[in-house]
Design brief:
The complex is a heterodimer.
Chain A lengths: L2 H17 L2 H16 L4 H15 L5 H48 L10 E8 L7 E7 L4 E9 L3 H18 L6 H15 L6 E9 L4 E7 L4 E5 L4 E5 L16 E5 L5 E5 L1 H4 L2 E2 L2 E2 L2 H10 L5 H15 L8 E8 L1
Antiparallel strand pairs in A: 1-12, 2-3, 3-4, 4-5, 5-8, 6-7, 6-9, 9-12, 10-11
Helix pairs in contact in A: 1-2, 1-3, 3-4, 4-5, 5-6
Chain B lengths: L2 E8 L2 E8 L6 H10 L7 E8 L5 H16 L3 E7 L1 H9 L2 H4 L1 E4 L13
Parallel strand pairs in B: 2-3, 3-4, 4-5
Antiparallel strand pairs in B: 1-2
Helix pairs in contact in B: 1-2
Classes of the chains: A alpha+beta, B alpha/beta.
Chain lengths: ~325, ~120
Amino acid sequence: MPQQTETEYKEILRQYLENQSEQNLYMGEAFSRKLIEKDISPEEVISIHKSALKDVLPGLPSKVWHSFDFLIEMMIRYGLALKEHQSLVKRQEEMQLEMEVASKVQETLLKTKIPVVEGMDLGYVTVPSRTMSGDYIYFVGNDMDEAGVAVADVMGKGIPAALCMSMVKFGMDSVQHSSEGPSGVLSVINRIVEKSVNDSMFVTMMYGRYDAKSSTFSYASAGHEPALHYVASENRFVELDAKGLLLGVSPDARYEEGSVALERGDFIAIMTDGVTEARTPEGFVEKDTILEIISSVKDRPAQEMAEHVFAELDRMQGFRLQDDFSLVILKKE
Amino acid sequence: MNLQVDLNREDSVQHFKVIGEIDAFTAPALREKLAEHPVEKGMKAEIDLSDVEYMDSTGLGVFVGYFKQVKETGGQVKITGLSPRLKRLFDITGLNEVMDIEEHKDDKGGLNDATV
């Protein structure tokens, strides 16, 4: 124990015993911060107190001194708990750092480019609720007359979800240049995911492909939230149902394929459950409310539409996303 | 958030009654409870969710995992008492096609009953 610390403490204690003023208390508090910085344990503090008191108030009964020894014993556990806490904080900081690096890796991994296709306007928003996202959006296309869009939601969040998602990404890359339709694409990815995930993990995914030559959108779903087709001529939404089991549950799952023709002003909205299961303090956001929000911006460009829906739902949830949020708008110009 | 799971066995069917919300916080407890009763060859498990108002994808993951284990041994999982909201979750995910799903008694029996 540095002599100086003891001397300083003794002085502060002496002053306090004489005056008992706020000022003295404040000095004590400031001093305790210094002790923490110097990593001095609780039992050492009592030991400092004891030896300071011997000088400041000599002649106390011996039982009082014994009581300090007893208190020092009592505080040893606290000292250990404090040490443990400090090492946990340090480890947490290290993990936080690793998380940030991982999140950067994920960002690079998930980079995707909106394909340019004649007569089609694409926009999307994807926002993680925590550092690592469990949602995944990936575009493929030949930059001429075809565009494919994959929207996936990996169960859970954080690192396990991110690792699982990289499998989906590599699966997508492997089918990018094949002639597989949406149903075939999901079958391939299902087999990859099923082989590699643990029992309680799964992925929901919607894969859609727009063909500019015929203005049709074909799609298949693996347990994913149905996409919405806005039919401009009738001013209404139609759910694009397509039966299909979650990815990763059964190796021989089959995926139904559907297809719709898009007219001018029609659009397709593909989302994850962060959109449909948005919760406010008053309860779930009703589906009709979500449709109203989308409708209110139906004449704007796809990217603005997606951003507006996100901003509205984020506001309704008090700017605290409960779940990763992803929305893709594919609009026929 | 609390989650309660009651177990009882009746005519070789293992019943689980789940009460509460199933989310990322309570899912581990549910998984443990289900694991308390070891999966036996050809076992029949029935899980009553009539007192579950909310379940997120983590909760669904617990049932998917349990279903896989039971199926592997040639057994069956039946899920009963689903609220319309939960029913929709099982429908969308396609789990209604591989598990035996039953809606809440009050909602049952309509012409539009979509259970396959």
